[in-house]
Amino acid sequence: MPRKCSLIGCRGNYEPRKGESADANKVSVFRFPKDGEKKSEWPRRIPQELLAGDITNDMVVCEKHFEPRFIIRDYVYTRPDGSSFTCPHEAPALDPEAVPTFFPNTPKYLSSPLPPKRKAPEDCRAEAAARDEKVLKEWMDSDAINGFDDFVENVSHKSSSLPSEWVMVNKVNVVLFVLFVNITSSLIPTVVASFKVFNNISVDWYDAKCKRNRDDLAWLLGDEGKLSRWYDLPNLCTYVNN
């Protein structure tokens, strides 16, 4: 037979009244702390005449008097590879920081949830670093050019912020040209610089007269000379222009 809640006015684990379901009052219960600060704090929190010396081993407080965050119902196991899985406790356990703060059938001012526990500075820094890392990863994923088909499909949108002098000529399944056109005083369009993005995302670039050395773009596109990020597109335009 489960122990009944020891707090006055609580019907935790008492027999149901007429009209109540059989498990209406079924709850988990927890013993009073036997030592430490919580031994004296629990009686101070409970709105009835109760001294630490009055508490016996048979007295318990039910789950109705604790914030849900303090009742541990599941184990979380971490595997060696870092993944985790959850399984339920055979019986709920109580967080060591828990104290009774909810008292149904009493004036509301007697129930006062605990303020959230302040996190240690190192934990706050670790959480901030994790958030920053997540944001960076999401941006890196969205900025990646995933092959030539992805480039062809999205380049019009991604290049919308480029100066209007740049004109694209799309050769489907072969190459994509981006040309810089200079309107001279004679109003005759002149190509002064350009670059090609091939179907393997490699780039060749040109000035007004001839093809330039691809190695000159290694600082931006890496040793393979490939346009792998959308962020590099405006930088490439600026460099070729200059």
Shape: rod-shaped
Contiguous runs where pLDDT drops below 50 for at least 5 residues: none
Radius of gyration: 35 Å
Please give the order of strands in the largest beta sheet.
Answer: 5-6-7-8
H/E series, N to C?
Answer: EHEEEHHEEEEHH
User: Can you give the mean pLDDT?
Assistant: 85
Number of DSSP strand runs: 8
| Number of continuous helical runs | 5
Helical content class: 10-25%
**Total separate domains:** 2
Derived from helix and strand composition plus strand pairing, the structural class reads alpha+beta
- Percentage of residues in strands: 15-25%
The major beta sheet can be summarized as: 4 strands, antiparallel
Taking the alpha carbons of the first and last residues, their distance comes to 85 Å
Describe, in plain words, how this protein is organized in 3D:
The protein has helices at 37-45, 121-143, 148-158, 218-221, 232-241, and strands spanning 29-31, 60-62, 71-78, 84-94, 166-171, 175-183, 189-198, 203-207. It is of the alpha+beta class and 242 residues long. It has two domains: 29-124, no CATH class; 143-241. The strands form three sheets. A four-stranded antiparallel β-sheet has the order 5-6-7-8, with helices on one face. The protein is rod-shaped and about 100 Å long. The termini are far apart. The mean pLDDT is 85.
